[in-house]
Each structure stands twice: as C-alpha cells, then as structure tokens.
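Write out a sequence, fold above all:
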Amino acid sequence: MNKELITSKLLFRLLAAVPVLLSGCAEFEDYSSSKNDSEYVEMVFTQDNEGTKAEIGEDGSGSFTEGDKVGLYIYGEQTRQVILTMEDGQWTPKLQKSELGSGTVRLSAYYPAREDVSPETNLHTHRVDTDQTGNGYEDSDLLWSHLDIEQEDITGDVIEMPFMHGMHRLSINISSDEGSLPDDLTVTVRNITEGSFDLSTGGIDTPSGTMEDITPRILSEGKYSAILFPGDLGEYAEGWVEISAGGKTSVYKAPATIGESSVLESGKETVLNLRLKSDGDIGTDPDPDPDPDPDPDIDYGGKTCWVYGVKTASLPDYPKDNESVPEYSFLVPENFPNGIWYKVSGIAYLNWQSDFLWYDCDKDDPDDSGSHPGYHDSNMCWAAGASNLLHWWTRLNEPYIEAYDARYSSNPWPAYPRPSFGFSDTEGSEIFDFFRDISRNRGGSDAVGINWFICGTPGISSPDPDIDDNYGGYFTEIFDNIDVAFRPEDAMNKESFNRIIKGALENKQGLGFEQSNLNQGVTHVMTIWGVEFDDEGYVSAIYYVDNNDHYNFEVNGGSNNYQRHRLIRQEIRYREDGPWKVLMGDSSIYPISCITVVDLKRDIWQKEFPEVEINESFIQ
C-alpha cells in the first residue's frame, strides 16, 4: 500500500489559530440573567456554531441541542459526577459555587454522559458502537474538556468549558476500475470497542475492549466514515478494512505509520482512498498531487539570515564549525554564557541580553500545574507569539507611531490604556500581560492576536463583553479592516516552506510558526528570528523562541536567579511522503504545520505620514 495515499489531518487544534471544534470567533449567549444570582454559576459548554452534533460535520464541528446530557466531574476531597441536561437553552441543574470547593476549581466534562460511571479516579470508560449507520455514529464520539480555574477568576458567574474530540475518525473513499460500484458492496472496519480516557489530559489508556467489526456510516456512494478508538496501528496489521462485493471479500491491512505516527490519534482523521479492482482485490489511487522539489537557490546557499531589524553587531550567527559551541550542565544555569551560542544536552541556545533585538515572551504556567506563580496562561502560546511580533512591529514602526499618537489618541479605550512596547528580562512584557488580562486561557492564533491588537479584527475570546463592544484596535484610525498578519494557506512542504520564509526575509516581514505534536494531537505557536540555509539554498535550521521553556532549567534546592529568555537553534529536515513534510530535528512527530507572516505596512504608514523618515542605518 502506497502510504502517500493515506492522509491524516487535525479535526481540531488545541493551540491553533481557529480550532475546528471550537471557533475563537463564536458568538456567545447573554448571561446577564445569571449575574444577579451570585450563589450560582452557569456552565457553558462551547462548540462551533455550524452544523449539528449528530452530523459531526466534515470539519468535526457540532452544537448541542435540547435534551443533550453532559457529565461533569467535580474534583475535590471526594470526586463526584453531576449530569447536566440542556433545557430551554441552559444546562440544568444550576450549580452552587459552594459545590465547586474553594481556591482552585478543577472540572472535567464529557459528552455523551453516562449514568454508570465511577468518578473516584480520573479515568472515564467509553465504548464504541459496532453499528454506526444511525445514532451509533454520534454515540461513539467522545467530547471532553478540562479546566482549572481560581474562584476569583470566574467572571460574571459563568464558567465556560470548550469541548474537544477524544476519538479518531476514519473516512474511506472507494472507487472502482469498472466505473460504477457494485450494488452489493459492503464495508466493515475493525476496532477495539472500549477504553479509558483521562479527562484531565485527554490521554487514553490502552483500550481494554475486544476487537470487533464495525459497520461505518454511509455518507454517499463510495464514501464511508467511522468513529474509532485511538490506538496502535499495529493492532490492524493483519486486517483493518474489509470490502465485500460479488461474493468476494478483500482485506486492507493497516500500514506501520500514518503521517509519521504509528498510532491512530485523538482528534484526527485518516482518509483512505481505495480502488476496487475488476478481480475484486483492493488497489489504491495514484497520488494526485506529488510535492514538487524546489530548484537549488544559490543566492541563499550557505547563508545565515535574520528577520528584518533583528541583526545587530552584537548578535552572533551560529558558528559554522559546530564543534566550537561549548556544552554546559543544566545544573548550573547561572553559569550559562552571554553573547555566545552554547549547548545543553546537545541543544544550542543563545541567551537574551539588552542589546539584542529579538523577543521571548514566556508563559507563567506552561504545564497548567499551578506550580509556578503568575498568570494561568497554559493555552496562550498564541498570545506570547503575537506579543513577540508586536514588540518587533512597534519598535520598527516607532517614528510612525509617534506621529500617529500626535494626531490620534493612543488610548482609544481608556479602560485599557495601550501597553508599553518596552521589553526586558526582569520586567517582562506589558503587551503579553495585556492579552492575558483580557482573554480567556484557551488556544488561538498569533495572527488573530496581532490583527486584533492593531486594527480590532474580531477573534479574541474575552470573558468581558465590554471588550467586544468597545475595543476596536490601538491603530484602527489608519488600519481599520487592514490586517497586518496572515497565514499563507499553502500546505507545508519543502517548496512552500522555503518560498514563504524567503519571501518574508526579502520583504522585511516577521515570522511566526505553528508546530504540531503528532503524539498528543496538539499544536504550539512560536516565533522565528533567524534562518540558516544549506549549500543549495534550502532552509536547514531555524533560530526560534519557545514560550513554554521559561522553567526548563529550574533548579531544585538552589538559586533560580538566571537568564530565562533564550534563542534556540533547531535543524530542519524534509520528507517526500506523508502529509507532514517539514520536520524539526531528528524526531518525526514535530512537523511545522503553518507559518505566520507579519508585514510592517510601511506603504500605509508612509502614505499617512509622508513627513516621517525612518533611520535604518542600525539594521544590518
């Protein structure tokens, strides 16, 4: 079986720009009626407003309807389950605040709810229906959500929990050498029928049920879909999909990997394009769109290039002789050097210092454990990435911004004065703090955050309705409905990745990127500040910052007073097969799934303020 014919795509993205299951731009109901009753909280379980849950749309979207039941685990000294039912547009029964405990409230929710569960542990047992031609398709899906929130952070007596998919979807497209498909065509899929989820993480234990035949839903002629348990593809090496017609049965055996992964992953879809041969066997369609291999680009051969406005005399390129980079022990982060590249456990770093012009906004609580002080921002990598690029954008446009402030108000909404553009290791970022103050702790897009900050483009999910009603962007007077950040829709492969990176470097644009974790089915937003090219002119390494690494070198029992902002060098490699073709490092589970490009919009600035001159002599 040609593995190029099997594609895997995300049904949703936990740290992505616009989650498919949950839209960052979704409309919310008016909860004013619940605000008057401070003894109660109103639960809100969100999904994309398009489609219906029963259909589980082509993109995995859905919405709740009257009579739906959600199971809510309330963790405490004794974990208990409450089943909430959608009645008259609200979830009942209403919960008293006292029922949630004090301090940190820990909640897990799942759909569809079951009465026969034991909530003493974090594990929730779920079953797959063997007949998915009707309601069994919907019933086999599992939506889950987890939330840790401080009592004082509950806004308007409303707790909102976004749902995500826990299962895997298999879509099968069948064509025939004969043109039309046989009238007696039948399809079955093998899958384990029961397993346990940890609803606090979305992780799944080894499925415990038996392997059985599942009858998939028929979408249209030759198109089938089944909701399956995540699990090891090796379980189906002897037979996964069975097709019968004309008295003959053929079996499709699962490959060793799909999309660089050896497992069926939660929240993802596998698409099989199968062809029924005239002799009754199963064949495959040819790859309709092989990825082109770009021609060598000698203009970039062997070069190191930095994002516009970042390179200064004090900022070193990574040494060409890799061996000269010193290795340090993670036990002594106070001794990590400044001004040179160094390695820890084989990974190359460069510490931030005040005369460097790249930025590294870090989250306070990247593991959602509550073990570190500060903001509850575990899902706000997009805001940290947006803040990095906004620091870059505002610094390089500073003369124009001064002219803008002289003509217009710098604070269009006095309730939230425009944050400072300054950045330091000790004081952090007011821009990132602003995002964390006004936005919910949930996944999103760096491009959406940047455009919202500058011109008020909708997309930020805030618990404060006044923000949606009153905020229109800090530079909306000249950037009204003009986005400065965008994500090219190209699928990431060697050609598109290099074209986008080089285009940004040549056009004085900033660069963010999204990395997928294929093992966990999540994505992570980060920022690129420099690029290395091999002798043929292809990107061979990137210099980037990771907003999740603030506590990576935490010292137990010693001093933690050391430089926490650092640039990371990571090699890039390419694959020709599979849906993920641009990979970070030696691992096959960390592809780059998309790029964010940020434009300085100098043409608009210059048209609006022709008298302003930009001194770029310091930029190398």
